[in-house]
Backbone:
């Protein structure tokens, strides 16, 4: 039987006998080797995709949410709250439903992909849309959790980071070692912080001899860490990472500097090229933010900065079905054909 993440890694997580395990059987996502040719691919470099879209709510957030909601239940909390670009909201809503708690999610109005809003609604979250961006929503929900009896489950809650570090454990189990590079998109910067924590713990206890160089990629219109200053009006098609003041800025900087890695920006055009390649070239449907990881790795390959024979892991953070709006804008749906064989064959290009 498949185990809850908190059971599987109980000895590496802050889980006690008194912790009720609130689980939807998250984690254990496939590490898929990229197969097809792609323009910028050096054939001696092996690239693997950790397909986090296959988590119960369709994103990596479930790893952190099982931990945060279990701890909230242990502390007898009746409500959890999160600001979100969408995935945290969907995950909080689902795990709160599972725990019999209330979920309050504060969203930047007009900038959350349709699938994520639908999930939050149907799981029964109380949705508050604010006329502002994610950074405004996070400021407000932090204050809400100080004034009212609700547990904050954004990644500023340290249990979220603890849960999310398990991704590194799974990668090392699958590869039998740490990869040479680990690339992922960066928004609020909790995930890069968590990945680095996971690899560092395995390194510290001797499970691995090496740690990967961490490569974080922000969208060019929302790249505060790359620029070194907050971005007041972040903009990108990758709404999941449309963030101007990352809460875990320092964790991201540490991951970059301690690992000898980098945090760089990729343009929306590069993100969309990688989005289409993953879907059409590899059969992996991801949301735009997730594709930033491959877009960034392509840059590194083009620049010859990844040594021959290296192993690279990408975290594909969220499922493509989260964001049907982008798919519909990117690929035009043809007009309906008449219901006769000739029209259908012609429409099928046969
Ligand atoms: N990819 C996806 C699909 C995300 O939803 C997020 C963050 C990230 C990458 C970036 O991860 O914030 O840890 O650096 N989404 C948050 C949310 C902000 O509210 O769902 P990060």
Residues:
């Amino acid at each position: 039987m498949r185990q809850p993440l908190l059971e599987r890694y109980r000895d590496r997580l802050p889980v006690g006998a008194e912790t009720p395990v609130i689980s939807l059987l998250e984690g254990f996502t496939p590490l898929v080797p990229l197969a097809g040719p792609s323009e910028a691919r050096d054939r001696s470099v092996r690239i693997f995709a950790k397909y986090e879209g296959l988590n119960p709510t369709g994103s990596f957030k479930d790893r952190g949410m099982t931990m945060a909601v279990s701890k909230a239940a242990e502390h007898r909390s009746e409500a959890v709250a999160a600001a979100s670009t969408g995935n945290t909201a969907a995950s909080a809503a689902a795990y709160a439903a599972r725990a019999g708690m209330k979920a309050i999610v504060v969203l930047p109005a007009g900038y959350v992909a349709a699938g994520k809003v639908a999930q939050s609604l149907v799981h029964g979250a109380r949705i508050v849309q604010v006329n502002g961006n994610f950074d405004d929503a996070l400021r407000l929900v932090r204050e809400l959790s100080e004034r009212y009896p609700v547990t904050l489950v954004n990644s500023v809650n340290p249990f979220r980071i603890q849960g999310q570090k398990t991704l590194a454990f799974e990668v090392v189990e699958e590869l039998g070692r740490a990869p040479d590079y680990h690339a992922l998109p960066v928004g609020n910067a909790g995930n890069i912080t968590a990945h680095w924590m996971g690899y560092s713990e395995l390194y510290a206890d001797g499970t691995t001899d090496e740690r990967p160089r961490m490569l974080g990629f922000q969208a060019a219109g929302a790249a505060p860490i790359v620029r070194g200053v907050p971005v007041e009006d972040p903009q990108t098609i990758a709404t999941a990472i449309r963030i101007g003041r990352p809460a875990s800025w320092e964790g991201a900087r540490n991951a970059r500097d301690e690992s000898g890695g980098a945090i760089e920006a990729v343009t929306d055009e590069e993100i969309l090229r990688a989005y289409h390649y993953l879907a059409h070239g590899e059969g992996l449907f991801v949301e735009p933010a997730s594709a930033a990881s491959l877009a960034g790795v392509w840059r590194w390959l083009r620049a010859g900065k990844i040594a021959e024979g290296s192993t690279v892991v990408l975290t594909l953070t969220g499922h493509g079905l989260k964001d049907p709006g982008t798919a519909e804008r990117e690929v035009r749906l043809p007009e309906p054909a008449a219901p006769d064989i000739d029209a259908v064959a012609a429409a099928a290009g046969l």
Notes: The mean pLDDT is 96. Residues 59, 61, 84-88, 155, 185-191, 240-241, 287, 289-290, 317-318 surround F0G (CB under 6 Å). The two ends are 47 Å apart (CA to CA).
